[in-house]
Automatic annotation (TrEMBL):
<dbReference type="InterPro" id="IPR004565">
    <property type="entry name" value="OM_lipoprot_LolB"/>
</dbReference>
<keyword id="KW-0472">Membrane</keyword>
<keyword id="KW-0449">Lipoprotein</keyword>
<feature type="signal peptide">
    <location>
        <begin position="1"/>
        <end position="33"/>
    </location>
</feature>
<keyword id="KW-0653">Protein transport</keyword>
<protein>
    <recommendedName>
        <fullName>Outer-membrane lipoprotein LolB</fullName>
    </recommendedName>
</protein>
<dbReference type="InterPro" id="IPR029046">
    <property type="entry name" value="LolA/LolB/LppX"/>
</dbReference>
<dbReference type="InterPro" id="IPR011990">
    <property type="entry name" value="TPR-like_helical_dom_sf"/>
</dbReference>
<comment type="similarity">
    <text>Belongs to the LolB family.</text>
</comment>
<dbReference type="GO" id="GO:0015031">
    <property type="term" value="P:protein transport"/>
</dbReference>
<comment type="subunit">
    <text>Monomer.</text>
</comment>
<keyword id="KW-0813">Transport</keyword>
<dbReference type="GO" id="GO:0009279">
    <property type="term" value="C:cell outer membrane"/>
</dbReference>
<keyword id="KW-0732">Signal</keyword>
<keyword id="KW-0143">Chaperone</keyword>
<dbReference type="Pfam" id="PF03550">
    <property type="entry name" value="LolB"/>
</dbReference>
<keyword id="KW-0564">Palmitate</keyword>
Length: 499
């Protein structure tokens, strides 16, 4: 197995792009108030000055809306840029994105800075598919040396994506559109991994061979190519040679030792594979290695030990793709089948919040209906007396809250509910959790009972404790979250669950 290179880059770069933008933008002298745009009316000049005063008083929302409205009225790109700066300072990435889109639309095509900011904000807002077109346009305007710097910065954002598959697919599409391809080994390696995520194995193999032709001892590429061949059960002799070379160059790397164990398993050297995988897991307990170790134990006729290995893997990361695929294939009774998945839940909730600094306790209660259709969830929240409070529609990358005939949109459903209703209810991924599944896109920890039924899930800062009926329908879910300011307890009791 090979370690996700994007995550390595994320650890190095983090949100470097955003910090650079914040430094560049927020250290400006706000020349808009000092020198209004040419042709501005006296009324518009007054609005600009009033917005800066409002900003000084903490009324960032008013200043943002005024600047953005003026930008659209006057066609002045600088005013949209100022609105974006205000949104960034206010930690409102969705509003910053809206302003950045206007800034880019109003700017001259030759200007690269608006596109650079727009792409960064699209990625920060998890709108990966939308980032591809402006990203390619930006890179095509940059010299080759600048391109590679930009691509390396984006690696940091992609490594922190909520949906790694969507991010990697976007990265693959971006680089595939470039002529010529980048020459940096780091960028090419990331491109190879992105190609694999996109199912383009020929592109992955070709790209890794380009790296190895220039640098035959590139450990990451040796291991990645060897593991990919072994995992697809092809060219096993070459796969073994590649991984063995990587292992000799880096004998203490647990991920490479895992690859060596996996290729030996493919070569029917099962006992040797078991020893190597056990050593790799001791060196670095990871979900991928647990998946491989469990499969070898399963084939050796040691199912209890195999299940124990998979349970350990789920404690580390129940969302790991290799582990999930292995369990689904070899231990399907642990996975709730599609015909048993519920699509609608009716129940009651009670929320208790303990504020640690003041030791005050607050709470609320009511009823809810959650329904799932395709990739869309609809959550209806009602008061204890049954009156409608709000309706939240959650789509991939977008949440819309309807209340009193008005709609509010955001990229994150949890933040939307908290800011609008004052209730810390976890809506993002709730339909997955109610089916005893982890939410795709973020690391999760899962605990099963002796029958393989889900007992606990830990994800997104929430600890979930389940109670199921004999028919495997959820009866109760207790959700707890510890924050810097206190604890949040949410109890869900289900009146009806529909398949």
């Amino acid at each position: 197995m090979y370690l996700n290179f994007m995550q390595k880059q994320a650890n190095r770069l983090g949100l470097l792009c955003l910090f650079m933008l914040l430094f560049a933008f927020l250290s400006s002298q706000h020349a808009y108030a000092q020198k209004p745009p040419k042709g501005a009316t006296s009324e518009q000049v007054f609005e600009i000055l009033a917005s800066e005063i409002a900003l000084q008083r903490g009324e960032a929302g008013l200043a943002y809306q005024t600047y953005l409205s003026l930008a659209r009225q006057t066609g002045e790109a600088d005013l949209a840029q100022r609105a974006m700066e205000i949104a960034i300072a206010a930690n409102a990435p969705d509003l910053a994105l809206a302003a950045a889109q206007t800034w880019d639309e109003l700017s001259k095509p030759s200007q690269t800075r608006p596109k650079e900011v727009l792409v960064t904000l699209l990625m920060l807002n998890q709108r990966w598919s939308e980032s591809v077109k402006p990203a390619v346009a930006l890179l095509n305007q940059q010299p080759l040396s600048e391109r590679e710097k930009t691509l390396k910065q984006w690696q940091g954002l992609i490594g922190r994506a909520m949906d790694e598959s969507a991010a990697m697919l976007a990265y693959y599409k971006i680089i595939s559109a470039l002529v010529p391809l980048p020459s940096s080994p780091d960028v090419l390696y990331s491109y190879a991994l992105a190609a694999e995520k996109a199912g383009q194995f020929e592109v992955m193999e070709k790209t890794l061979r380009i790296i190895l032709k220039k640098d035959p001892n590139n450990i990451n590429s040796l291991n990645a190519l060897g593991y990919s061949l072994a995992d697809r059960n092809i060219k096993l002799t070459e796969a073994y040679d590649l991984i063995l070379k990587a292992h000799k160059l880096s004998p203490d790397d647990a991920f490479i030792l895992d690859s060596l164990g996996w290729v030996n398993f493919r070569l029917d050297k099962t006992s040797l594979a078991l020893t190597q995988l056990q050593d790799a897991f001791r060196m670095k307990p990871e979900a991928d290695i647990a998946a491989h170790l469990g499969e070898v134990l399963w084939v050796l006729g040691r199912p209890l030990e195999a299940e124990a290995a998979w349970r350990q893997g789920e404690l580390i990361d129940a969302n790991n793709a290799t582990l999930k695929e292995t369990i689904r294939r070899l231990k399907p009774d642990w996975i709730m089948s599609l015909d048993k998945l519920a699509s609608q839940w009716d129940g009651r909730f009670a929320v208790k919040m303990n504020d640690r600094p003041t030791n005050n306790t607050q709470g609320g209660s009511g009823s809810f209906t959650l329904s799932k259709t395709g990739f869309s969830d609809t959550l209806e929240i009602r008061s204890p007396m049954g009156g409608a409070i709000a309706k939240i529609v959650i789509n991939p990358g977008e949440a819309i809250l309807e209340r009193d005939g008005k709609k509010v949109m955001a990229i994150d459903a949890d933040t939307l509910i908290q800011n609008t209703l004052g209730l810390p209810l976890p809506a993002r991924g709730l339909s997955n959790w109610l089916n005893g599944q982890v939410r795709p896109g973020s690391t999760a920890r899962l605990v099963r009972d002796e029958r393989g039924q889900v007992k606990n899930i830990t994800q997104d800062g929430w600890d979930l404790a389940y109670k199921w009926s004999d028919a495997q329908k959820i009866e109760r879910l207790n959700m707890t979250r510890n924050t810097n300011t206190g604890t949040i307890d949410v109890r869900l009791i289900f009146d009806q669950v529909n398949d």
